[in-house]
Q: What sequence folds into this?
């Protein structure tokens, strides 16, 4: 099974990298781009056979290691 | 009195801390590899600066799982003094021994140099020789020192007197211009509620001799020696 984990800063947390990228895009003329938020994307190859087990395992890994719950939230997609 | 300096793969301020303790402070220091499970007969634990495990996922995110960290936590739970410097501070945040988290510096740049750090509290083992409001000239060297805590946690920190150090200008004022990284409330260092765990981004161990640009940092190490003598009993785990 494969799981995809998207880690993003919580909306209330300032994102210096995202802001820098947004400013760069504006200076390149992309005036229609508003705010930019940067995050992390992980693809996990899981040695489990059921969707439920994959979801549970990916959530455990994301919660404990991949994301810091103080500043980040995450979303898991299993395929 | 023995200082344990924990060494993670990627630590780079471990020798600075060891040198400052042994050759300037004049107390025995011992390196403890992160895969060890015991701190031995340590009386003080220092988590040094650097880039543990490359900081690839987040700063300190992997180091918190190192085998030695269970002993560091037990040592702290028993009241032992623990000092986290720079990456060591980041590790303490990641493992939840101190509240909050680190973000990238607000200008996304690595900042390196001496600046003013005001001592807010002297009721910790690492600041008891300071005066409240004393400004120390200490060096920083970090890209992710933008301290963040959610509003409720920040309120608890301020109310509990757990903000120990703040970045200040030449007049001792905590202005936005004096804040090198965007830290909330200009916070440079904090403690836990019991005050025996202190984490800070500046490097006191790199400012212990005037030939290195300043000796203001030595008072942090002298404080913990004083604290242990005052207590009369040396903590051992």
A:
């Amino acid at each position: 099974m494969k799981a995809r984990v998207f880690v993003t800063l919580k909306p209330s947390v300032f994102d210096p990298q995202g802001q820098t990228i947004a400013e760069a895009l504006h200076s390149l003329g992309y005036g229609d781009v508003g705010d930019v938020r940067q995050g992390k994307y992980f693809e996990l190859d899981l040695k489990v056979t059921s969707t439920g087990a994959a979801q549970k395992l990916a959530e455990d890994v994301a919660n404990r290691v991949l994301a810091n719950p103080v500043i980040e939230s995450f979303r898991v997609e299993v395929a | 009195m023995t200082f344990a300096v924990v060494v993670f793969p990627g630590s780079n301020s471990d020798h600075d801390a060891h040198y400052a303790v042994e050759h300037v402070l004049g107390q025995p220091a011992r390196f403890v590899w992160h895969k060890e499970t015991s701190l031995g007969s340590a009386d003080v634990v220092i988590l040094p600066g650097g880039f543990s495990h490359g900081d690839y996922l987040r700063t300190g995110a992997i180091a918190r799982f190192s085998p030695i960290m269970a002993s560091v936590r037990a040592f702290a739970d028993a009241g032992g003094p623990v000092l986290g410097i720079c990456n060591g501070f980041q590790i303490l945040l990641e493992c939840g021994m101190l509240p909050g988290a680190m973000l990238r510096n607000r200008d996304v740049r690595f900042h390196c140099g001496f600046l003013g750090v005001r001592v807010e509290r002297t009721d910790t083992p690492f600041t008891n020789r300071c005066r409240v409001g004393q400004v120390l000239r200490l060096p920083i060297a970090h890209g992710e020192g933008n301290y963040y805590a959610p509003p409720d946690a920040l309120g608890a920190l301020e109310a509990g007197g757990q903000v120990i150090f703040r970045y200040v200008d030449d007049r001792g004022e905590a202005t936005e211009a004096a804040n090198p990284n965007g830290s909330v409330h200009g916070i440079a260092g904090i403690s836990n509620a019991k005050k025996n765990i202190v984490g800070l981004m500046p490097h006191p161990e790199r400012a212990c001799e005037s030939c290195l640009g300043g000796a203001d940092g030595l008072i942090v190490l002298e404080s913990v020696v004083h604290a242990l003598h005052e207590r009369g009993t040396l903590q051992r785990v």
Notes: Helices of chain B lie at 14-25, 68-77, 87-94, 151-159, 218-231. The longest helix of chain B spans residues 218-231. Chain B has one domain: 3-231.
